[in-house]
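Our preliminary data section would be incomplete without showing what the modeling component actually yields. Below, a chain of 322 amino acids is followed by its predicted structure, encoded as tokens that our downstream tools consume directly.
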Amino acid sequence: MPQRNVMQPSPDPVYILRGSSSPVTSLHFLPILTNTLLSGNQDGKVYVWDLKTRRIQQKINAHLDSVLQVEASPVADSLLTHGRDGYARIWRTGEAAFTCTDQIQVSSKGFCAAKMLPQTGKSYLIVLPGESSSVTVYDSSTKQLVRELVPPSTKLGMCMCMQPVLDSTGSAWGLLVGYESGSLLLWDVVSGKLLSELMLHSDAVMCFKYSSSANRGFSGSVDNQLLEWTISAENENKMSLIDKTVVTNQGFNDIVIRCDNKIVATAGWDSNVRVFSTKKLRPIALLSFHRGSVKALSFSCDGLLAAGSEDRLISVWDVYRS
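Predicted structure:
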């Protein structure tokens, strides 16, 4: 497939956040605190950034190894972190500091980040990578194991990335899991039943993002192809590939979809952030600033895009924002 040329020259970031002690590995705009960005670092620290002052508001010694995930929970004033030290931790926000209230030991110390699955009511589920290709599901209230999702095939390899599938009320009924083999599996988290499987990539699924409201997913691997796919509710939740585009350089670290589902952005091994229109998967901007691989991305509720890199910097962009 011929490469689709980027139409716009690279703009400049609106500002740069400096002061991270190590490469940035995870980013998350915190909806419960206005103008707040969380960043997880390779040295296990989580930073709370005040975007008004553009300074670090708080430093959390969250883990003894690289932070794989920092994410706000469905419950107010709470967040989840997951580190390669083998722990997922729940933190409660206070007036002065974040306090760790619970933790769950993770059997796998790979690169797959934990995820939270909102449920009806105040509770939520926590999904963690298990041994081999399995996924473990925990109740957030009791911290007890609810079920284990074990695929029938032993050739999938390790879990690489996960994301919940939401219904119209915002509750998670499904879980998508990308594997080392390049396959994507869709699970029913209530029954534990495997619903469908799609072979996406010839190598590991390095990252993907799925929008439940738009029923569109995007995934990347170690090659230079960005794939688009969907789930058919009318056809027994069968997943199918619908489009793909080719970029200049190989390797994807992260993918995010803006909340209006009009734009998808990718974090590249080549230190660039690429922005695409989701309507036709057309490249519309190449964001070039960082000197190291871009490891993490996050969109704010009002459309700002943050990018964290191996160069220890976080760039914040205002690109095609309404």
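The radius of gyration is 18 Å. Confidence is low (pLDDT under 50) at residues 1-6. Preliminary results of this kind motivate Aim 1 of the renewal.
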